[in-house]
Amino acid sequence: MKKILVVGANGQLGKCLQKLSSDYDWSYNFIFLASGDLDITDSGAVLSVLEEEKPHFCINAAAYTAVDLAEQEAAQTFAVNADGPGNLAQACREVGAVLIHISTDYVFDGDTEISYDEDNFTNPNGIYGASKLKGEQQVMESNPKSVIIRTSWLYSEYNKNFVKTMLHLFSEREEIGVVNDQFGQPTNANDLAEAIMQIIESDKRVYGVFHFSNYGETTWFHFARKIAELSGSDIKIKALTTAEYPTPAARPRRSTLALDRIESAYGIEPRYWENSLQECLQTIMVSK
Ligand code: NDP
């Protein structure tokens, strides 16, 4: 039976993979390691776990994802998002495992009117994006037989994310303001977990960088309005400009990802973002 090692298993993607793994337990042996089980910045520990487990695939769901705090914690951010993936890629090469690593739309500056494809010029705005770009480079230098998936605006029923923050605010406030001049693609982390499993299940093995998000572009404001509509909230939502809602880390203005490559290489067809959002909200409501 093939073995899949998942690191960063208590993050939202890690938890979605844990949930999905029960659909595959007849064909794969999953090992889930949280940050307390394996710190990916510890190269010796990474190599010894990989040598002991000898997985066929390693999924890196670990990351430093506090985009604003990263501006003050650059060393820690680069250690987790750049050196960590490098350690995993090197150890995967040693044991012949395929690394599936997750990156972000924040590798782009967002100064564009068209969707970014995988070969477009990268130019991150902040420390988080810069550390993730360095992570991509360290993975490809250490082991070109890796799959890197850039995704965007991840949410799920797990942990802290935009959807859950909005639901919380809807229950506490009568009016909120949300930025309406940043464009991107919300992505249900459960759909990303499924895409990863489709790649693992594929007969073809195509390496390199791929984009995966839910299909369709929106702004944070329209995303929030759709969350309100689908959850039955009558909250008033005011459209703000980025200038009216300054954050320590600058965000891309428009970081929409072109999704053709993952479809032609692996036959993965992302769902429309509103459908995936509706499913996530139903899961959250049912579990309340
Ligand atoms: P989360 O922040 O939910 O989870 C990240 C996990 O990584 C946490 O459980 C954390 O552990 C763990 N971790 C942190 N440092 C280490 C370390 N040194 N060793 C091992 N584990 C560590 O992330 P998401 O699930 O949201 O993100 C998954 C991927 O998607 C990441 O690569 C992220 O960069 C990328 N991405 C995310 C987006 C988003 O909107 N969230 C958008 C685009 C891309 P602990 O629980 O102990 O903190």
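^ NDP complex. DSSP finds nine helices and twelve strands in the chain. The chain has one domain: 2-156+187-216+254-272.
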